[in-house]
Amino acid sequence: MWEYTDKLKDHFFNPRNVGEIEDADGVGEVGSLACGDALKLTFKLDKNGRIKDAKFKTFGCASAIATSSVLTEMIKEKTLDEAARVTNKDIADYLGGLPEQKMHCSVMGREALEAAIENCRSGGKKKHELEGNLVCTCFGVTDKEIERVIRENNLKTVEEVTNYCKAGGGCGGCQGEIEKIVEKMLGDKIEEALVPTPRRGTKLTNIQKIQLIQQTINEQIRPALRADGGNIELIDVEGNKVTVAFRGMCAQCKLAEFTMRDVVEARLREFVSEDLFVEEDKESADQPHNHRE
């Protein structure tokens, strides 16, 4: 028997915002009835670009209903950029926690939100697509999705991965491959820990500054942009001026100036130096390039 919080029980027995917005600005559909869980999230923006209404339809357990209900409440009155920063951990924490075996419901909520935001920013043309190579055929989970839940939730075992994204919870034939992904991710994390990293507030050499800027882009900025179908490339660092170029959906987004100031520049000032300022290299936006990971 699962241990559910009072808040989770409340959102299960009294779910908020059930239904579907017919003229929605954003639509996100994830999961599958064949896999046991499915969620459709729709939202409508106000004239200022904030989410004024959100509704959901879900097929699943008590946790799936509660996390979907809470998600619609959490994103109301947020801008798309603010909503994009909501994580599966935020959803679980809002409910006072979830049983480990039900954490995949919070992940499904986060995926539906990302899909809806991506759909909105593409003008309704883009639908959610799986990224990466399929690992778990029973539940349709890719290696990129597994890597993400491991990284964002600090997972260390195959069982934990199954709890968070259901991969490996069907026939079990993919558990060996999941174990390899877990080992690789843990190995990469150990290697990173062994390399001394300069931190904000210390006097940096030019090389250290560039390395810390690139690390901040990789860890703090790029994941958020990729969640919306975009990307960013570091072009140059000259003194305190950092030149970057937006890629993908970000290069076409009308809110690029906001993203540059309130996301890119803000994160670099937080993690590297308060003296940094960022400029966009628009000339190279459509040129062939290689991302620096």
What does the model show?
Helix 2 crosses helix 5 (103-121), helix 5 (103-121) packs across helix 7 (158-165) and helix 9 (206-226) crosses helix 11 (256-271). This protein has a 3-stranded antiparallel sheet with strand order 1-2-3. Strands 6-7-8 form a 3-stranded mixed sheet. It is 45% helix and 17% strand. The chain has 11 helices and 8 strands. It has helices at residues 6-13, 62-75, 80-84, 88-94, 103-121, 143-153, 158-165, 175-194, 206-226, 249-252, 256-271; strands at residues 26-32, 37-45, 51-59, 134-136, 141-142, 230-238, 241-248, 277-280. The longest helix has 21 residues, at 206-226.
What's the structural blueprint in terms of helices and strands?
Blueprint: H1 6-13, E1 26-32, E2 37-45, E3 51-59, H2 62-75, H3 80-84, H4 88-94, H5 103-121, E4 134-136, E5 141-142, H6 143-153, H7 158-165, H8 175-194, H9 206-226, E6 230-238, E7 241-248, H10 249-252, H11 256-271, E8 277-280
Summarize the structure.
The protein has 293 residues and is of the alpha+beta class. It has 11 helices and 8 strands. Strand 2 (37-45) and strand 3 form a beta hairpin.
